[in-house]
Design brief:
It contains eight helices and 17 strands. It is an alpha+beta fold. The protein folds into two domains: about 240 residues, 3-Layer(aba) Sandwich (Aminopeptidase), CATH 3.40.630; about 80 residues, Peptidase M42, domain 2 (Elongation Factor Tu (Ef-tu), domain 3, Beta Barrel). The strands form three sheets. The protein has an eight-stranded mixed β-sheet, with helices on both faces. Helix 6 links the parallel strand 14 and strand 15. The chain is globular. The structure holds cobalt (II) ion (CO) and zinc ion. Cobalt (II) ion (CO) binds next to loops.
């Protein structure tokens, strides 16, 4: 799985421009799906058909990542930019961005000031000396992402866009392991999660599932002086109780806990005080869809160096498999 995570996290896919990522995933899953398609908003939808008495489950993981968009290019060729999604400003200075055509730039702060980190004091230097030279490489309106390679630390791995390519990797691995399911399983690699759960909204409407499960990263409370939170790296799949976008349906929460208990899958309960996932959009679809989230614990979320533990990733795969194979009549 590490190789899949490496490929996915090194791909280019800011919100709205996920096609490089979804094409990569499409090639990885096409032999394991009955149908693969892409919709108007750029969601990649892979289906494994179930039996007649089965239910419909939608699993989602977002393909997009946070990034920047160029707003202005000055006479000396410096770029100004806005955020795409919740970019952590403190992690920008000195870091590099990569645009769609491969152009790389350095982010820095006016006056070299590290204390007053505001987005409108930051600029991107792509090595251009004039506006014309800059314009020959990039244009206003172009999207960029963090430029960082995947790093393997053993049990733990670090990359940009682990949020949520690691969730995509979990679904890809689960797809490989499921044969002849009873339930019809939709694996949706959604667009535009980071700017407001947009791809999940339209795809959930189309699929209209009996159960929706999002796979996404969550914060941890296990680093020096961290905000108090019960989630730690290496302690298993996190079963979400709530975040800002939803309260997990009690029956879905109980089902996930029961399946983890029955399957001896390490798990922990997650209460996220801010942030949301695709399940926030799925559960509000039509007249409401029972939904939940299986979270991959992740340190340094929305920085260029997001860290997860492969043992948690495995636990999440196991929990997805348990849900996929469950007889949902009891829900
Ligand atoms: Co995110
Ligand atoms: Zn995410």
């Amino acid at each position: 799985m590490k190789e899949v995570i490496k490929q996915l996290t090194e791909a280019f896919g800011p919100s709205g421009y996920e096609s490089q990522v979804t094409e990569l995933i499409s090639n990885m899953v096409k032999d394991y799906a009955d149908e693969v398609s892409t919709d108007v908003l750029g969601n990649l939808i892979a289906v494994k058909k179930g039996k007649e008495n089965g239910k419909t489950i939608m699993f989602s993981a977002h393909a997009d990542e946070i990034g920047v968009v160029i707003t202005h290019i000055d006479d000396k060729g410096f770029l100004r930019f806005a955020n795409v999604g919740g970019v952590g400003i403190a992690s920008l200075v000195g870091n590099r961005v990569r645009f769609g055509n491969g152009t790389i730039g350095v982010i820095y702060s006016e006056k070299g000031d590290w204390k007053e980190l505001k987005l409108d004091k930051l600029y991107i230097d792509i090595g251009a000396e004039t506006k014309e030279e800059a314009n020959s490489k990039v244009r206003v309106g172009e999207f960029g992402i963090f430029h960082r390679e995947f790093t393997d630390l053993g049990h733990r791995v670090v990359a940009k866009s682990m949020d949520d390519r690691v969730g995509c990797a979990v679904l890809i691995e689960a797809m490989k392991q499921i044969e002849n399911p009873t339930n019809t399983l939709y694996f949706v690699f959604t667009s535009q999660e980071e700017v407001g759960l947009r791809g999940a909204r339209t795809s959930a409407y189309t699929i209209n599932p009996d159960l929706g499960i999002a796979l996404d990263v969550t914060l941890t409370g296990d680093t020096p002086e961290a905000h108090r939170m019960e989630v730690s790296l290496g302690k298993g799949a996190a079963i979400k109780v709530k975040d800002s976008s939803m309260i997990t349906h009690p029956k879905v929460k109980e089902l996930l806990v029961q399946l983890a208990e029955d399957g001896n899958i390490p798990y922990q309960m997650e209460v996220l005080e801010r942030g949301g996932t695709d399940a926030g959009a799925i559960h509000l679809t039509r007249d409401g869809i029972p939904s939940g989230t299986i979270s991959i614990p992740c340190r340094y979320v929305h920085s260029p160096s997001e860290m997860v533990d492969m043992r948690d990733v495995q636990a999440c795969v196991d929990l997805v498999l348990a849900v996929a194979n469950h007889d949902l009549d009891t829900l």
